[in-house]
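Example record used in the benchmark description.
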Amino acid sequence: MNRTQAPAFSQPKDLEIQLPVEIELENGARLFWIKDIKDDSVKLDIEWCAGSKYQDKKLVANFTNKLLLSGNDNWSGKEIANEIDFYGGYIQHELDRDHAGMTLYGLVENMSDIFNIFRKAMLACDFPAVEFEKERTVSLSRFKIETKKVKNRCRRKFNESIFGEKSAYGQVAVETDFEAVSRADVKAFYKQYYLDATPTIFLVGNVDATFIEQLREWTTELGNFVPDFTKEALMQEKGKVHVPVKDAIQTAVRVGRLMFDKNHPDYFKFQLLNTTLGGYFGSRLMANIREDKGYTYGIGSGMSVMEHAAYFFIATEVAVEVKEETVNEIFKEIARLRTDLIPEDELAKVKNYMLGDFLRHADGAIAMMENFKNIHFNQLKTTYYSDFIQAINDATAEDLRVVAQKYWNEDDLVVVTAG
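Model output (structure tokens):
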């Protein structure tokens, strides 16, 4: 080996992810398991179709998930947390519009004990009044603080503008919703979407067959209800929307539109185009609005894909006096991508960044499981990542200009500002 010469440069041509073993549990529950890892850590993700789009009253899904281990009259939430902590366990609560879940972390030797505590606490939860009122008070206080920030005012109005304020995806809470939600609402949601429903389980770790049987026994205590959601006709606003915020010294800016899901034939090329515009630190928006103009510390663009909706967005915060200039510069960069070809050296740099990012997100069993969850929940082909890499390698500047002309028409975008 000649150590005076650098290794030859090469780009990845595909990405073969490690697929988990699927095990059918009881009542239709499915377990996806990656066993062969190099250490004794265990990560257990339990996901229910219990996101905010299923709630009949705002905040119910959120309160239910947060208080799932709040205990009952005989076993307090603090005692539950102390027992989990005793075994070195850690639990995260997760909630988005589509799903709600719990993630359990621990070591192989203690995972059985950690899960047993979770199992008993989850099944016997009574949402004690004291814990419920404490959560109401804390959440309302946090809400009042957060909604004073222009970035949150802008994000909330942007959601309403993209999806429609009465839609399941566009709904945002207001202060009166915190008083309206009740223990009875939470208990009903808990029974229908947790106790009576079928979870999907993702397991990474070298556990033994006994632990798998524990999971199987737990699913016998749950129902087999599979929630149904009727896809809504979303009504996006277009043009400019402003949210005035008294005495604000900054203005938050969001620009975007409704988009397609990850199975769409233009998805891969659009992601490459988006990365060029604002998807990484060397993007055009960063070069213009941060480095050249000095209007902001950071600006970025992205695409969020959910089960029944997707949207593209650009987001930043700038001084109040340069709001209009910032919006104009954003549209200038969009117009350049619609009219001019991306130079070969710039396109090569963006491709290299994206390909490296793929490899970074495929490092280790936990990362591989996250990749599989993306495939599972978005109903993608198992070759999705290899197909994505191939599409990046094959994309030309002309391909991206066509995509920009198709999806970045200024008249199709909504601009929301708050400040």
